[in-house]
Amino acid sequence: MSATPYIFDVSGVAQFDQLVIENSFHKPVLVDFWAEWCAPCKVLLPLLAGIAESYQGEMLLAKVNCDLEPDIVQRLGVSSLPTVVLFKDGQPVDGFTGAQPESAIRSMLAQHVTQPPEPAADPLITAQALFNEAQFGAAEALLKQLLTDDATNAAALILYGRCLAERGELGEAEVVLNAVAGTEHQHALAAARAQLTFLRQAADLPEVASLKTRLAQNPEDDEAAYQLAIQQLARQHYEPALEALLRLFIRNRNYADGLPHKTLLQVFELLGNQHPLVTHYRRKLYQAIY
């Protein structure tokens, strides 16, 4: 038995008439004639099952084991395997014999079967993609709609807070992040708070050009090096910031009570353990410590 109602085995002529012929007046039924000894049949069957699943009930798939159902085979005149026949309104309307590529099968079905509509995109995923492309206003519009429907949606609140922070609305962003309840999204919340911290720090620091001038004059200006890294973090320029923080840690790990080390750990939390930069710089930090 199949785990889906769209796919089923047919046993006997009476069941064929009921499950294939009668059903085909309501929606197309694709019939796969196969046998255990037929190698191409075993390749084709999972392909047909996947196609049937993709139609989400707009088409059914019936399986006929030819060794067990000779009466059905004789009635349909099946002489080679695999044979696939599409029934519609009680009649065979199309089909093919032998193994076929998925593209050819779908092309044949497209002439007779209505393709189900594409599932609506998850608005949270869409908002995240917009955020990643720095389209903060568009992301906020989607998130506001989500939060209108469910004001406690933690993932939406966190992303909304990050959008506000990126637009410079730091106070409002903090209010939104403070509204997040529970621990399910603890990492994402910590990352959003870290980014908010970097943005706040950067607002009170000298401009990037000024800091670069100071470092050009004195490459060992620890304060300028740290402040430039914070400015880079606020602009999501993570790699140069991580490199600068690591160099500062190696040169002066006690700077500001170990602030470079603490900031590196904040960035690791912001980006997440799976981020390649985190993997790379966590290893380099470990080597620097030990």
List keywords for this structure.
single chain, 3 domains, 290 residues, alpha/beta, five-stranded mixed β-sheet, 14 helices, Glutaredoxin, Serine Threonine Protein Phosphatase 5, Tetratricopeptide repeat
Summarize the structure.
This protein is an alpha/beta fold and 290 residues long. The chain is built from 14 helices and five strands.
Please provide a written account of the structure.
With 290 residues, this protein is of the alpha/beta class. The chain folds into 3 domains: 7-110, Glutaredoxin; 123-197, Serine Threonine Protein Phosphatase 5, Tetratricopeptide repeat (Alpha Horseshoe); 205-289, Tetratricopeptide repeat domain (Serine Threonine Protein Phosphatase 5, Tetratricopeptide repeat, Alpha Horseshoe), CATH 1.25.40. Helix content is 59%, strand content 10%. The chain contains 14 helices and 5 strands. A 5-stranded mixed β-sheet has the order 1-3-2-4-5, sandwiched between helices. Strand 2, helix 2 and strand 3 form a beta-alpha-beta unit. Helix 12 runs antiparallel to helix 13 (259-271). The model has no long low-confidence stretch (mean pLDDT 93).
Global mean pLDDT: 93
- CATH class of the largest domain reads Alpha Beta
Q: What is the element string, with H for helices and E for strands?
A: EHEHEHEEHHHHHHHHHHH
Under CATH, the topology of the largest domain is which? Answer: Glutaredoxin
Number of domains: 3
Q: Can you tell me the residue ranges where pLDDT is under 50 for at least 5 consecutive residues?
A: none
- What is the spatial order of strands in the main beta sheet? 1-3-2-4-5
Q: What does the oligomeric state look like here? A: single chain
Roughly what percent helix?
55-70%
Structural class: alpha/beta
Rounded to an integer in angstroms, the radius of gyration calculated over CA atoms is 31 Å
Which shape, going by the Cα principal axes?
elongated
CATH architectural grouping of the largest domain:
3-Layer(aba) Sandwich
CATH superfamily descriptor of the largest domain:
Glutaredoxin
Tell me about the largest β-sheet: 5 strands, mixed
Distance between the termini: 59 Å
- List how many beta strands DSSP finds: 5
Total number of helices: 14
Strand content: 5-15%
